[in-house]
Amino acid sequence: MRFYRIFMYKHLGPAFSLLALAALPVCAADINTFSFSSGMNCNGVWKLPDTGQALCYNASGQSACPVSGFPGQDAQYTPAAVQMSYTVLNPVGISSVTVDNVTGLMWVTNPQTDAGFKDMQTWESALTSCTVTLNGMAYGGYTDWRLPNVSELMSIMDYGKASEPYINAAAFPGAVSYYYWASTSWGLDPFNALFVPFGPGGVGYNDKTNSVYVRCVRGGP
Q1: Which of 66, 67, 187, 205 is the most buried (most CB within 10 A)?
Q2: What does pTM read for this prediction?
Q3: pLDDT in the model for residue 190
Q4: How many helices (H) and strands (E) does the chain have?
Q5: CA torsion, points 158, 159, 162, 165, in degrees to nearest 10?
Q6: Taking the C-alpha atoms of 179, 170, 25 and 145 in order, what is their torsion angle to the nearest 10 degrees?
């Protein structure tokens, strides 16, 4: 299987302005109706969730924050309104869902056990599993499940974890330190699609005929 590392999630330096978002109050998704508006949360905007990164670095390696000569590091961006926060509903049974309280997206909590996706799948199979299989069974009571795009999948990556997989284990039990398909095709080759590895982090691309893991989402654009 080919694996290509492309880029890390994000770097928030001084030139990246999120002042308007940081000023917003902490607000969870509407867990009564789960009425999404183009992926916006209940504040009416799409908030960029924090990466969870808590370490700063200098030219030699890890260093206490702040680092002289290396300003604006990701670990210095910690507004409460965008810290990772999840709500797990129906934690027992085959309809468990995890709601991201920052973005408002709803995820299948454990695809391997809750949705029956026990094996890795090709990209086409992953699309079918989310849009046909889950919607056909009205998983969790909803019929608008889909394969997440690469930005949505990266939004649940937790770079603050000390060990793999880099994801909240309580909100996403059963997650593995391997690749998960994104719906996003690789722009330079339509026979490849992007994936997010919850082990090394970052983003890669792979031939759509190869098999990796699947996690479905609803809500958003």
Answers
A1: 205
A2: 0.72
A3: 92
A4: 4, 10
A5: 50
A6: 50
- In the chain, % helix, strand, coil (3-state, to 5) comes to 15, 20, 65
Q: Does a cis peptide bond (omega within 30 degrees of 0) precede residue 165?
A: yes
pLDDT in tens, 5-50: 444 333 323 222 222 223 333 444 443 443 334 444 454 555 567 6
Residue located via tokens 């695809």: 111
Q: Residue 148: what residue type?
A: P
Two tokens, residue 2: 């080919």
Consecutive H or E run containing 217: strand 217-218
User: What sign for the dihedral angle of Cα 153, 159, 161, 164?
Assistant: positive
**Amino acid residing at 5:** R
The DSSP letter of residue 184 is E
